[in-house]
Amino acid sequence: MMQAAMMQAAMMQAAMMVGRPPVTPQSPATKSSGDIERKSALPPLTASRSTLDGHDEGVIIIGARRLVLPAVLMIVMAVTACTSGAGAATGDTAVASGGTSDTSVPLGSASSGTTTAAHVPEAPTDSPTPVSRVFAERVVQLAPGSVDEASGIVASRQNPGAYFLVDDGLDSVTAVGADGTVIATIGVDGMSEQNAEAISGGGCGSPPPDGSTATNCLYVGGIGDNSSRRRDISVFRLAEPELTAPPTEPVPADEWLYSYPEGAQDAEGMMIDADGSVVIVTKPDRGSPTRIYRGAPGGGELTLVREFTPPSPAIPMRTVLTGNVVVDVSSEPGRVLLLTYDELQEYTAPDPGVDITSFPDWPHHRLPMPSLPQPEGITGELDGCGYVVASEAGPGGDNGSLAFVSCG
User: Fold this and answer.
1) Which of 309, 303, 354, 306 is nearest to 333 (CA)?
2) Phi and psi (nearest 5°) for 395?
3) Which of 18, 55, 291, 378 has the fewest CB neighbours in a 10 Å radius?
4) Could you say which DSSP state residue 101 is in?
5) Which residues on adjacent β-strands are paired with residue 184?
6) What is the pLDDT confidence band of residue 402, given thresholds at 50, 70 and 90?
């Protein structure tokens, strides 16, 4: 009875948010013909992944009405509570994680499972590797108008305590401090304001385009393609800027053009391997496998390396609408961090020098997932333990935000 009441309350609140009178469930003996007619007149529900990453962000269409994402999430939460029989606590700022990886859960959440695509097997949970770290979370707000649609983040290698962000609506890179304060907005020659979905750091390989002797470079991935129509994708390589005296003019950058052998793909995750090659993790349509591609430095046709299925989230929320898709990846020596809309996984390399594209087969475990409006970017901290998650403003929000998770 209590579960049914929770479901009914959530549905009534959601209905009020879209301006439709709620339909109160009745027993068959008391339903009138008017009730039946009203129910049958309701338009069918149609939704697509573009509700989270397209122009109608945070909106679902029900017939001719627009339903904001929070209303849908209320229903999803009620369904989860009713089917699992367990609620989720919120507001935690620290969590102790012990034992094996399959028992660790995100901050403020309870464990439950979902099914994944059957034709691509999911990598086994890392049961041999214990996780005995204590995590502390700190969330900072970014200034409105600075990086409202944060889509990627990377920790600076030569400016400790600073982070570079990209926004898929801007043609620049934004440097911020650990308190979220904007240090500099850096223009990039030739970079479009659309589709900048990822940023990574790595060695420069060949000399950077500014003619300097810099050894650290930033790689901005113009790899977003929600409609899967682009013939080419772009990766911009630039010397990592010095932030004690930030550049005031757009900085030179190489533009590397890549194409997919099977045709256009959408993607938001990108890593740079030790040899300077580009590794891209796709964001497929629901039901399709996630793919890993590799591209040689300088551009050309990408090579399909493998397919895999990301681990299922403990509590599916956004993924109920979008599918379990990868929104970002980050690589540091010895580990890869993989971010979906609902979960964060840490993959640990079984030995030094292992091929980074084999990470789905590495031991892995769930890490605490900060509570943010719409997680889109992940970077590891230079200490090899902590990490930072970047979020868009989300539906109805005014600014992006960062969650710093330290561990010890």
Assistant:
1) 354
2) -60, 125
3) 55
4) G
5) 175
6) very high
